[in-house]
């Protein structure tokens, strides 16, 4: 049985997502690294967020009996793990202090976790009926 997420959990999820993303990007903005390095880390954040949300959706789809192809399921896992690996390799080889490396790693992981929680809350709210579907949209297709 799916329960509607509490307003406190929805709010905390959004705050965590925004805090992680904003902190990560403020860190990039203030960093003394070259612009191409900043672009690399920013792209990894976007890639990781998309991959984590997509993975959460495919796992949830499978649990609910919604067909998901094995290739897409595998690609979601690959994308999520590769985003974490690419960040790890980038930080390992970066000329940053350990505290800076830890800051980027923690804000990245907070953002990924929060993105999954926000997506889960959105889906649960729609399934419970918090957000009405349109007449042309089937109730269990294309859930965010």
From TrEMBL:
<dbReference type="InterPro" id="IPR008024">
    <property type="entry name" value="YiaAB"/>
</dbReference>
<dbReference type="Pfam" id="PF05360">
    <property type="entry name" value="YiaAB"/>
</dbReference>
<dbReference type="GO" id="GO:0005886">
    <property type="term" value="C:plasma membrane"/>
</dbReference>
<feature type="transmembrane region" description="Helical">
    <location>
        <begin position="101"/>
        <end position="118"/>
    </location>
</feature>
<feature type="domain" description="YiaAB two helix">
    <location>
        <begin position="9"/>
        <end position="61"/>
    </location>
</feature>
<dbReference type="InterPro" id="IPR038972">
    <property type="entry name" value="YiaA-like"/>
</dbReference>
<feature type="transmembrane region" description="Helical">
    <location>
        <begin position="7"/>
        <end position="27"/>
    </location>
</feature>
<feature type="transmembrane region" description="Helical">
    <location>
        <begin position="39"/>
        <end position="59"/>
    </location>
</feature>
<keyword id="KW-1133">Transmembrane helix</keyword>
<dbReference type="GO" id="GO:0006974">
    <property type="term" value="P:DNA damage response"/>
</dbReference>
<keyword id="KW-0812">Transmembrane</keyword>
<feature type="domain" description="YiaAB two helix">
    <location>
        <begin position="72"/>
        <end position="124"/>
    </location>
</feature>
<feature type="transmembrane region" description="Helical">
    <location>
        <begin position="71"/>
        <end position="95"/>
    </location>
</feature>
<keyword id="KW-0472">Membrane</keyword>
<protein>
    <recommendedName>
        <fullName>YiaAB two helix domain-containing protein</fullName>
    </recommendedName>
</protein>
């Amino acid at each position: 049985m799916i329960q509607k997420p509490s307003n406190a959990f929805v709010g905390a999820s959004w705050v965590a997502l925004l805090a992680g993303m904003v902190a990560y990007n403020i860190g990039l903005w203030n960093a003394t690294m070259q612009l191409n390095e900043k672009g690399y880390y920013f792209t990894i954040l976007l890639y990781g967020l998309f991959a984590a949300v997509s993975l959460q959706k495919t796992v949830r789809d499978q649990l609910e009996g919604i067909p998901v192809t094995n290739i897409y399921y595998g690609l979601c896992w690959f994308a999520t793990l590769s985003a974490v690996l690419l960040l790890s390799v980038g930080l390992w080889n970066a000329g940053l202090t350990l505290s800076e490396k830890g800051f980027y790693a923690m804000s990245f992981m907070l953002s990924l976790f929060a993105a999954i929680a926000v997506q889960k809350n959105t889906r649960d709210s729609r399934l419970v009926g918090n957000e009405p579907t349109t007449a042309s949209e089937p109730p269990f297709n294309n859930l965010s």
